From TrEMBL:
PROSITE patterns per record: CYTC
PANTHER family named in the record: CYCLOINULO-OLIGOSACCHARIDE FRUCTANOTRANSFERASE-RELATED, F-BOX DOMAIN-CONTAINING PROTEIN
Lineage summary: Bacteria, Pseudomonadati, Bacteroidota, Flavobacteriia, Flavobacteriales
Gene3D superfamilies: Ribonuclease Inhibitor (3.80.10.10)
GO function term, MF aspect, one: heme binding
Membrane spanning residue stretches: 17-35, 47-70, 82-101, 113-134
Keyword Oxidoreductase: no
Every Cytochrome c domain range: 161-261
Keyword Membrane: yes
The name this protein goes by in its record: Cytochrome c domain-containing protein
Amino acid sequence: MSQTPDFVLFLGRFHPLVVHLPIGFLFFAFVLEIFGKKKKYENITVAIPLALMLGFLSALIACILGYMLSLSGDYDENMLDSHFWFGVFTTVLTLVAWLIRVDKIKLPNKNKLKANISALTVIVILLSVTGHYGGNLTHGSDYLTKYMPFNKKEEKVLVPVEKVEDAVVFDYLVAPILDAKCTSCHNESKKKGGLSLIDSLSIMKGGKGGEAVVVGSANKSEIVKRVLLDPHHEDFMPPEGKTPLTEEEIAVITYWINNAFAGFSNTVGAVKTPENITKIASNMLGLSAGAAKQASLKALPKIPDDVLKEIVAQGFRVSELVFNSNIYAVELPANTVTANNSSELKSKLETLAKIKDNILWLYLEDNQITDSYIDDINQFKNVQKLKLNKNNITDAGISKINLPQLEVLNLFGTKITKASLPVLANIKTLNKVYIWNTSISKEDIENTNLENDVPDFVLN
């Protein structure tokens, strides 16, 4: 089978843009027809032929572009056929409605009025059905009904485990990650890249890009390779606009492939499980000390979508750390703030403060952070992991840090000196501080009079 030319697929991707034009034109024609029946509005019906013609032309173009898009093979064929043919019927009927309206198809005046309103009514119905199938192709077949009141949800119920060793690796750890980050684009009705991750058979079948999972070899598995690419790479997954996988989520999937050999029934206790994975798994299952520490945060209210969108619009990347917990990792990508726009940093942090209680990990690497911004950062009282590396932070800034939950602090490439060591050692919650590429040396740490219970200072 010959491969579809890239240019055809490029044009096909304009379908979602163009398809809204006939919807607007044809609904407009329908509204004109309804209101035009009233005597005082009868003059507006002169615009109906133009609306129908524009609706037909844009629908025709949308059909052509939609066909081009379908050649990618990323969609369920049965649902795609329904969407396509309903679109064709809508386009043809729109042409017929226009021909009747401009008297190219002759009808008695008595029947013409009925034909006009009937045709437009059917067109609106067809538009709705076509749009419904299109929405299913794009968002999945349960998109419309998922949150419908009284909708009975058929979900696989997992029995809570008392020990992490009893948890089935795939069901309890991997599947929730795939459901949250992957299956909206890789399901039975929408198979981007020909890949579905909805069940074990589909996962092992893989997609157009190769084997999604290579048993025992995560570095050869597309599901891992794609999430480790540079975020700007065209093959990076998930695509732009979707929430990327966290380091912990990637570690879990890698562990499942390498240690559990991509099995669907292996338990954590039955395979070799590194300590870091045990901690992550315990946290996901609510069994660890870390999870207990977060228990009070689980009662936090859901952040409104408009607030999250406002924060993302400021350049932040927001990822939920624990499923349905409203606890987030937030990153301001390096060099989002430069010397040229450093005046914007204050407003960005003020916007982010709208969810200050919900942030556990805060990454602000290389973004013109200076000592003067430490007070702004101190608002985020629940932060456990803070990255301030490659910023102009000095000893004065370190002395102002007041984050009662802080466990990990990255100060790589900052301006701090050995004078900050006692200050950092006095932050009792700190477990690890990254200080390489600063003026602090191993000798400085050894020669500073520190108590035994101090953070692990990492120099390389």
